[in-house]
Amino acid sequence: MASQPIPFFDRVDDALHDGSLQTALGRATGRFIANRGNAFAALESADDLRTSARAIRAHALAHLDELLIKLSDTVESRGGHVCWAEDAESARRYIVDLAKARGVQMIVKSKSMASEEIHLNHALEEAQFHVVETDLGEFIIQLAGETPSHIIAPSIHKTREQVRDLFVEHLNMIPTDDIPTMAGTARTELRQRFLHADMGISGVNFGVANEGAIVIVENEGNARLTTTAPRIHVAVMGIERVCEKLEDLGVLLQVLARSATGQRLSVYTSILSGPRRPGETDGPEEFHLVLLDNGRSRILSEQYAEALMCIRCGACLNVCPVYQAIGGHAYGSVYPGPIGAVLSPLLQPDLPEVEKLPHASSLCGACQEACPVGIAIPDMLLRLRADAVVAGKTQAIEQIAIGGWKQMMMNPTLFRTGGKLAAFGTRLLGRNGSVDWLPPPFNQWTKSRAFPQFAEKSFTELWEERQKQSQK
Amino acid sequence: MPAPHRQATLFVSCLVDQIYPQIGMAAVDLLERHGVEVHVPKGLTCCGQMAFNAGFRDDARVVAGRTLEILRGQGDVVLPSGSCTSMIRHLYHELFKGTAHEAAADDLVGRTYELTEYLVDVLGVTDVGARFDGRITYHDACHGLRFLGLEQQARTLLNGVEQAELVPLQGCDECCGFGGLFAIKMADISEAMLKRKVAAIEASGADLLVLGDVSCMIQIAGGLKKAGSKVRTRHIAEVLANRVGER
């Protein structure tokens, strides 16, 4: 499914020239980076914690089959139902059919990137269900008719002024920029939805195999309501998000909260195990866990397995200078930012222009440095680029340029001659050591920077002269 | 000059060879001044990074394989570039894995050093006897910083420069937006990143921006020039070898 029909470079151009977006991104990513920095600085050994987190994730991936079977068994033993969804379509179908079979009318949702990945809202709305997003950020973008532009902060691209206008238009709010008032308006609206919903759909931060439990962290309390107030709870979980035991959460929840928002722990941590049992006063009548593969087991078998360690904290987005410049929508994929540039070609290979995403990186490595589980994102971007070349997804001009480069680098005489030509050319075009204009495609360079003139004498020549002199 | 007590091979990189040969000569000066006999094998061109980063691994392997052959048995290899050093140290293993060159690549990885790393960590130098009258600020090139873990080496050496005042650069560890072909393919994003860098450099009050990678230097110096800035950009080797005024 094409999320946006606008070409990649037009989206980038729009983003770079969108004043509100630039303001919103600057404010939010700056705040996220500072909070995360403080949260990790407060630890005695941040590196140890991250090493432990990586080990737990690696262990889970290495034993994914066993852990998932265990999770499925324990969930069922607690009265829950498990759907093994091989792809997006089977996940959607299971949930839509379930809602139909149970006579559901109103559905509330808490934040879930997995549900975005399978375009669940679209399928539910097409089947005539009323779906309401209850995470404040998701609620905002649902009103705006948009998709999330950040993994944990879906409306990060919106300024508070834009949110005010949306609430005035859709919720009849009296115009104000006061955030508590705006949040109160949303809360009043949402409270009614929770009370009337028949089904709650959530994501899953971690599934705990030994306990048959799922863990959801949040700061608003909406996920707790979504998973407990309606009579049916459906949780959508990417199969890689499993861990073995409750003790693992001691590490995972810490790195998640610190990396995502800079909190020591999120405000609400819900560990949910199955439907309401006899004698209990809370919880849904039915619990369904949808285990979503959708390409993950294929990724696990490839050189990109490490990408499945991702715990969706969003830290790599915040620190990425490319994400900071263009925001999430320009990527055009469900998952934006550095990890999105890795996951999208793997999860959404048919997305138009998806092969461009691994090139939307200067390979600066800030993502890997910020990643709480140390995913080697730059290395994977490089592999994806190589895959695209092998698959023939490159422009002719690039192939020619690389071919020419190779000839030159393989032959020192040619290399030297090429340098002489470049020195002549850049001297013709520029002066005082630099060139202000180069012909296409290098005009892409000179439109915003000067280019240096090549040297009249190369280092090799200077060195040879020096060697000759010292021999005299 | 002390009597040479070690030998090293200098691999200046393609960009230094053709665009900034002074940086190569400055590196020669520095190494010789600290008792290193410098060798420059004939025919060295490029580490292969450009093609590798563009995804053309077969082409990169051919060029890098040639470089590998030239550097075989050449002892310590020193490069005045964090980026090329990182290509060899961090990526040659993956590039040559399962090929006839695998052992040679792994051998080279273990004896390849970035220049400031070699001076400080191998030779134990902290003061090279340089002098610069003015304010210096330092940009951490990404590959040296994050893939080689170089952060203090350059600062240690710059702190030893007489008369120079080392002033902080806001966001010194943020990418300048070069990224090889990224600067051409994603020119507008690269430009947005460059503008932030240029603004930070201007705000630092420095007379001289110093860095350890020629690729970032082409980008940042080009951006400063376009912005009409008076701040000059020099490679750390030029500063340490007292060759700032030579170009």
| Parts with pLDDT < 50 across at least 5 consecutive residues of chain B | none
User: Major sheet of chain B, described briefly?
Assistant: 4 strands, parallel
CA(first)-CA(last) distance of chain A: 73 Å
Helix content of chain B: 40-55%
Largest sheet of chain A: 6 strands, parallel
Number of domains of chain B: 2
Question: Biggest sheet of chain A: strands side by side, in what order?
Answer: 1-10-7-4-2-3
**Assembly state (oligomeric):** heterodimer
Instruction: Please state the CA-atom Rg of chain A, rounded to the nearest Å.
Output: 26 Å
Number of domains of chain A: 2
Q: Decide which structural class fits the backbone of chain A.
A: alpha/beta
Shape category of chain B: globular
Structural shape of chain A: elongated
Structure description:
The complex is a heterodimer of chains A (472) and B (247). Chain A is α/β, with parallel strands linked by helices and 472 residues long. Helix content of chain A is 52%, strand content 11%. In chain A, the strands form three sheets. Chain A has a six-stranded parallel beta sheet, with helices on both faces. In chain A, strands 8-5-6-9 form a four-stranded mixed beta sheet, with helices on both faces. In chain A, helix 3 (46-62) crosses helix 12. The longest helix of chain A has 23 residues, at 19-41. Chain B folds into two domains: 6-121, Rossmann fold (3-Layer(aba) Sandwich), CATH 3.40.50; 127-246, 3-Layer(aba) Sandwich (Rossmann fold), CATH 3.40.50. In chain B, 50% of the residues lie in helices and 15% in strands. In chain B, strand 7, helix 12 and strand 8 (232-235) form a beta-alpha-beta unit. The model of chain B has no long low-confidence stretch (mean pLDDT 96).
What does this entry show, briefly?
The complex is a heterodimer of chains A (472) and B (247). Chain A has 22 helices and 12 strands.
